[in-house]
Backbone:
């Protein structure tokens, strides 16, 4: 399948086997700049494998992935990790904050790793924390904040470098529905304000409702879900 013109990221015919199991079996996927795409599907269908391939974390056995016209497999490991540090952002279900650092130090961390001086990094981090309504928690450690607050800190961290593509793997999976909805509202608002595209893996319809388009993964293949009429 030819990817649509103007895609930010386009993957074609991805295959990945773990022994006899085909986690991906000819999956196509594409996303446009600023688009929010929900990736849905039952457990074990290949969603996480797809996300990890798209983000250049694991290499598929075959198939192509182009980010902004560049083929991921043609890059060196260090080029791929530079891409992840500068162009991509990541939010996971939980456990992603460094417990020894304060919340503002956690949010500033990606900037510090890219060489930004501490004061400047923390100033930018605080701006993102305000946007995610957690600036009041700047001096607290992750162990001292609630699950929903921690996820908002994690979202602030994922956006602090101004990524063009955010990968969110079940970002509300460990939250109750009220906190989950608030995280999704703030995440999608912030992504839209900065024109960041979002690949959002979820198995919950109410989380997928925040997306522009839904893709269903089944048996290692990805298909656009027909819009409801
Ligand atoms: P999902 O995210 O939809 O739950 P996954 O991508 O995690 O699905 O898994 C797809 C299939 O690949 C499953 O059958 C899973 O057991 C298998 N799988 C995924 N990762 C590994 C791995 N590292 N080693 C062996 N099997 C794996």
Residues:
């Amino acid at each position: 399948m030819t990817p649509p013109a103007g895609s930010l990221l386009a993957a074609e015919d991805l295959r990945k086997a773990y022994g006899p199991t085909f986690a991906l079996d000819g999956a196509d996927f594409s996303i446009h700049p600023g688009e929010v795409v929900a990736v849905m599907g039952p457990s074990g269908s290949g969603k996480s494998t797809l996300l990890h391939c798209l983000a250049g974390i694991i290499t598929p056995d075959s198939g192509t992935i182009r980010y902004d016209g560049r083929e991921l497999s043609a890059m060196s490991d260090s080029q791929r990790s530079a891409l992840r540090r500068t162009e991509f952002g990541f939010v996971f279900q939980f456990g992603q904050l460094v417990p020894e650092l304060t919340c503002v130090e956690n949010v500033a961390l990606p900037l510090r790793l890219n060489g930004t001086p501490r004061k400047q990094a923390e100033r930018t981090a605080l701006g993102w924390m305000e946007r995610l309504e957690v600036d009041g928690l700047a001096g607290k450690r992750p162990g001292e904040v609630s699950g929903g607050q921690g996820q908002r800190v994690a979202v602030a961290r994922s956006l602090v470098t101004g990524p063009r593509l955010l990968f969110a793997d079940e970002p509300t999976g460990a939250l109750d529905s009220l906190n989950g909805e608030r995280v999704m509202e703030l995440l999608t608002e912030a992504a839209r304000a900065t024109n960041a595209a979002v690949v959002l893996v979820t198995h919950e319809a109410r989380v997928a409702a925040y997306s522009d388009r839904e893709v269903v993964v089944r048996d290692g293949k990805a298909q656009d879900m027909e819009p409801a009429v």
Q: What stands out?
A: The first strand starts at residue 9 and ends at 18. The first helix runs from residue 47 to 54. The pocket of adenosine-5'-diphosphate is lined by residues 18, 21, 23, 41, 43-49 (CB under 6 Å).
